[in-house]
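Hi C.,

You asked whether I'd gotten around to modeling the 288-residue construct. I have! Everything is below, sequence then structure, no commentary in between.
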Amino acid sequence: MKRKTELSIAETIRQGLGLLTPTERKPALALLANYPVPGLEPVAQFAKRAGVSGPTILRLVAKLGFASYPLFQQALRDELELRGQAPLAKIGARPSGQWPDGDFVNQYGGAIVANIEASLREVPRSEFNGALDLLADRSRRISLVGGRFSASVALQLYLHLRELRPRVQLVDGQTATWVEHLLDFGTKDVLIVFDIRRYQDDVVRFAKEAASQGADIVLFTDQWLSPIAAVARHVFAVRTAIPSSWESFGALSALTEILVARLQAISWSEAKRRMERLEKIRNRLKSS
C-alpha cells in the first residue's frame, strides 16, 4: 500500500482499503470522512476519534510509507498548500513566452497526454463499472453540477447523456437557485459532480446535502480529492496539474468520453431508439 509520490494520501488510502486490516480501516475511513483534519491532530486525539489505539495509527502511517507520524503530518500540510493554490501561485506556472527553447505545442501537449495516460491507468475498474451501472439504470434521475471552470466538463457530459437516456438534468445558473433541485432529491437520484482545487464551497455543500437526502454521488476530482469524496459512492481522482497557472481538463474530458462510449455500447438498443426519435423530431422542426 506504500504511497506513490504522485498520489495524494487520500487517494492512496481509497485505492488500498482492501489491503488494510479491519482495525486499520477504522482510522483510514475516519481520515477520509473529514480529510485531512484527523491526520493533523496528535496521535492520541486521532486514535480517540477513530476508536482505536495509538499504535494502530502508527501502523497505518507506516503502511502508507512514512517513517514517522511527523513526516506523515508534514505531507498532509504540503497537500493542503497545493489544494489551496491560486492560479498565480501554482508551481511551474510561467508565461508562455518563458518556456525553454523547443516546440511549445509539443512540450505542453505532452504534459496533457501524460496526465491522461497516468489518470486512466489509475482509474479503479470497479469504480468505473459501478458508475456505469448507475448511468445505465434508466429508473434513476441523473443530475450534473460543476464549479466555476469544471462546469464546462459537466456540460459536455450532460449533452451526451441526454441523447442516450431520459431523466438527465444540468444544475446550472445562479447557485441561489440550486436549492430547488435539492427539493426533489431522493434515493433514486444520482448526482455527478465535478470539483477540483480550489474546491468550491457551494458545490461541496450542494453535494453533501444531496447525499444526505439519499442521492448517490459520483465525483470527478483531482489527485488531492475534493471534500465531497467523503460522501461519494464512486470517486475518480485524475491528474489536473500542468505547467501553467490553470488546471488541465484533459483527463477529466477523456474519462467522461470513455464513460459515454461504454454507456452507448451496453445500452445500444434503447439509446438507438432514443437517438432515432430525436432525429425525427429535429427533421420535423426543420421542415415546419
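If it helps when you're writing up: The domain at 9-83 is CATH 1.10.10.10 (Arc Repressor Mutant, subunit A).

Thanks,
B.
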